[in-house]
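Action item from last meeting closed. Structure (448 res):
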């Protein structure tokens, strides 16, 4: 069991913000099935800071649900520490990945990873991302109702493999796809939520054994890419993340990052980067299908060569249905949040869907109204789909490039229409996914 879980203080109602009395299993199921509805019910009852008592946490998961506490949790790094707090994800992404690295090493690792993800560098990928989107578009334009999320997952995995590894060989890309798909399948990832003894490798048929085998196949492929790139003659001319990292200064003076560090870092990038982006793409097309007036206005705006409304649409989708449910920290010492006690080592979550639906910040919070993003910027920390502070997502520019490219290309070819009722959100691990994959039907524009 990871350190953060071992250190976590047990539940004690006097030491934590208030919580519902329902048993842990009931709270877990309610959160998974209706993360936004259940969170809002608790916020109405207890105010902007409350505890959730859900698996796999044994104490209370302290939740911050308004702009003031969201900001405190994300930016007060002395009180709320990141890295260890991502203990839940460590067995998947690797304890040495940026996501799981606590300070002070975190800043050093982040400095290494930031340059390849800088906005200007990511902009150089626009044409190649456009090519990948156009190549995959026919699979979406079937004429029938299709769930966008699985389609987008295939696309965003291809993009991340291209951007991170420069992978173009179709055979190796297919091997990656098979390995990653099997590893992130929900029945496999569910292992992360099992009690520690059941997560162990107890033979090939045990859930833990299967998890470790599938993880090993993903990491083997990544190890192969690292080894090949170390000796590639064209390494210095390449612009993929792996080549840039190999050319960068790393752990020691004059040396680049070592293989073990690279392996965790690259695994983290692949896993952090593709499902989140696919989920945002799915929500955006699904919301457009269910809001035809916005959709038609957007199509006109794009036809006129503007991307102003496009950016506003993507922001509104990120507000209403943020792909990542929360950013996690742990309390560095006994402290308080919103007037409630928080014990040392407790897990503390900045819960984005709640701040994003706060009526004091966002009038008519449930309405899909992209034009609200056309004026002034929102209040700081009112809109944080990519987290904030020193740990803000490094993939923001890439994720936005992918989402905007998909929406632009889809709307050039077709208009999304509903293929069933508007879908509610479910919580899958830390991702807020559309319950049926974000189904839409695409009507070709020539026939429109
Ligand atoms: C729409 C898509 C995405 C969303 C919604 C998203 C969201 C987030 C959030 C909420 C965090 C936590 C921030 C915090 O703790 O304050 C995060 C961290 C991170 N994300 Fe993303 N992300 C997305 C795409 C990507 C992509 C494309 C990549 C890279 C390929 C990526 C790599 C990372 C990494 C490495 C971290 C850890 C940063 C750190 O701890 O310093 N993400 N992301």
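Sequence:
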């Amino acid at each position: 069991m990871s350190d953060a879980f071992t250190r976590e203080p047990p539940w004690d109602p006097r030491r934590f913000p208030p919580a519902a009395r329902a048993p842990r299993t009931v709270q877990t199921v309610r959160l998974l099935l209706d993360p936004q509805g259940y969170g809002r019910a608790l916020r109405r009852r207890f105010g902007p800071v409350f505890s959730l008592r859900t698996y796999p946490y044994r104490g209370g998961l302290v939740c911050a649900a308004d702009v003031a506490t969201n900001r405190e949790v994300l930016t007060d790094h002395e009180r709320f520490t990141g890295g260890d707090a991502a203990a839940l994800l460590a067995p998947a992404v690797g304890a040495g990945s940026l996501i799981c690295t606590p300070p002070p090493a975190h800043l050093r690792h982040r400095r290494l990873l930031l340059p390849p993800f800088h906005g200007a560098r990511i902009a150089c990928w626009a044409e190649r991302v456009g090519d990948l989107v156009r190549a995959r578009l026919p699979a979406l334009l079937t004429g029938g109702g299709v769930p966008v999320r699985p389609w987008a997952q295939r696309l965003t995995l291809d993009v991340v493999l291209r951007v991170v590894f420069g992978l173009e060989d179709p055979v190796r890309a297919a091997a990656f796809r098979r390995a990653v798909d099997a590893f992130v399948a929900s029945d496999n990832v569910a292992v992360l939520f099992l009690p520690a003894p059941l997560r162990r490798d107890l033979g090939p048929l045990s859930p833990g054994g299967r998890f470790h085998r599938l993880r090993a196949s993903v990491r083997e492929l990544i190890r192969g890419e690292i080894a090949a790139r170390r000796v590639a003659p064209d390494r210095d001319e390449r612009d993929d993340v792996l080549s840039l990292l190999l050319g960068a200064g790393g752990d020691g003076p004059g040396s680049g990052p070592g293989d073990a560090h690279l392996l965790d870092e690259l695994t983290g990038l692949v896993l952090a980067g593709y499902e989140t982006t696919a989920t945002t793409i799915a929500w955006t097309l699904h919301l457009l299908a269910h809001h035809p007036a916005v959709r038609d206005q957007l199509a006109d705006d794009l036809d006129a060569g503007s991307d102003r409304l496009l950016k506003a649409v993507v922001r509104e989708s990120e507000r209403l249905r943020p792909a990542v449910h929360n950013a996690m920290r742990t309390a560095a010492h006994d402290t308080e949040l919103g007037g409630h006690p928080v014990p040392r080592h407790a897990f503390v979550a900045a819960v984005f869907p709640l701040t994003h639906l706060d009526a004091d910040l966002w009038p008519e919070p449930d309405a899909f109204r992209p034009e609200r993003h056309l004026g002034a910027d929102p209040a700081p920390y009112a809109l944080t789909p990519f987290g904030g502070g020193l740990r803000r997502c490094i993939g923001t520019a890439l994720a936005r490039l992918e989402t905007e490219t998909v929406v632009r290309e889809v709307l050039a070819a077709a208009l999304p229409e509903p293929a069933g009722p508007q879908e509610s959100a479910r919580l899958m691990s830390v991702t807020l996914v559309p319950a049926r994959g974000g189904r839409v039907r695409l009507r070709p524009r020539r026939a429109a």
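Note appended to the action item: The pocket of protoporphyrin IX containing FE is lined by residues 74, 82, 98-99, 110, 160, 268-269, 272-273, 276-277, 280, 323-324, 327, 385-389, 391-395, 398-399 (CB under 6 Å).
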